[in-house]
Amino acid sequence: MQRELPIFEPAPTELAALDPTPTPRRHPDWIRARMPSGEAYHELKALMRGLSLNTVCEEARCPNIGECWDQRTATIMILGDTCTRACGFCAVKTGRPTWFDDDEPRRVAEAIGALGLEHVVITSVARDDLPDGGSRIFAETITRLRETSPGMGIEVLIPDFDGSDDRLRTVMDARPDILNHNLETVRRLQKPVRKRARWDRSLYVLRRAKEMAAEIGYPAHTKSSLMVGLGETRSELHEAFEALRDNDVDILTIGQYLRPSLQHLPLERYYHPDEFADMKREALELGFRHVESAPLVRSSYHARDQVPGAELKRLRRRATIDADGRIVPLAG
């Protein structure tokens, strides 16, 4: 018999071991992903296949792929599709990578230029096998993207680079608009959820990224993401919110963990949309510039609306040109 997952019951105090019982196939009524559709989605899908690009949208089975691709926002995964870490929540395959292409930044930039994206998120698998963790390829990809798509917003979602200042500086010198590194879960659950990652190391990476941007002399936002439903408590989540703000993180995304397979960590409970709304209010009161909080929110959700200057771009999208060449807002 399938077990019923609690929704408003207090979460367990410790994360359970891998549960041999199947995760119920039916989610609550509010867990409803939009079916991928639309002209822009199918166009991007065909282009991605034709250009042999890996996207975390597909590799990690993101439920928002239809909405994001329809808005011409995508998350490109560089440095191959095999991760050297085996985090308990992640659907990306793990193992010993054998792929590396020094020419990847040029190919990615040319491909992205053909896609006509408004915003791109560049992420990667963890590459602990590389001497620089892949930081040079991140930096070169950003530089190439600036050349081929100068008006596009660029966000990078990076691994922790083992806390190396040199690797992080390599990325920040390329001037991404947003530097994203995910805390993923509360302090107590870091070890079972993230394996080789560390709570303090992740917070250090986020703090140093903001400090480096200031030293270089350009505005950058920092961003992080948390999953809920792994057995954490609300007080532990508040501690995580405070820790991120104490390290000057600007943007926070909060979403429901959904178990990819029986080999991944068990789902302890579902959070109701009202709880996500409460967490958003709580986080905004702590001073975050932008918070996305809902069951299907993932790290790159609505990413194009979070870059510096995004408000002006948003107004332009909602405007038209009158007979005298002036920009005027559309009705409604």
3D architecture notes:
With 332 residues, the chain is an alpha/beta fold. Helix content is 34%, strand content 13%. The protein has 11 helices and 9 strands. The protein has helices spanning 39-51, 56-59, 65-70, 104-115, 135-148, 165-172, 190-194, 199-216, 234-246, 273-285, 310-317, and strands spanning 73-78, 119-124, 153-157, 178-180, 221-228, 251-256, 290-293, 319-321, 327-329. It has a 7-stranded parallel beta sheet with strand order 1-2-3-4-5-6-7. A two-stranded antiparallel ribbon has the order 8-9. Helix 5 runs parallel beside helix 6 (165-172) and helix 6 crosses helix 8 (199-216).
Q: How many strands, what sense, and barrel or not for the largest sheet?
A: 7 strands, parallel
Number of helices: 11
Coarse structural class: alpha/beta
Oligomer: single chain
Residue windows where pLDDT falls under 50 for at least 5 positions: 6-25
Approximate helicity band: 25-40%
User: Could you tell me the mean pLDDT?
Assistant: 81
Major sheet: order of its strands? 1-2-3-4-5-6-7
Order of helices and strands: HHHEHEHEHEHHEHEHEHEE
Strand content: 5-15%
The gross shape turns out to be globular
The total count of strands amounts to: 9
Taking the alpha carbons of the first and last residues, their distance comes to 51 Å
Keywords:
332 residues; seven-stranded parallel beta sheet; 11 helices; alpha/beta; globular; 9 strands
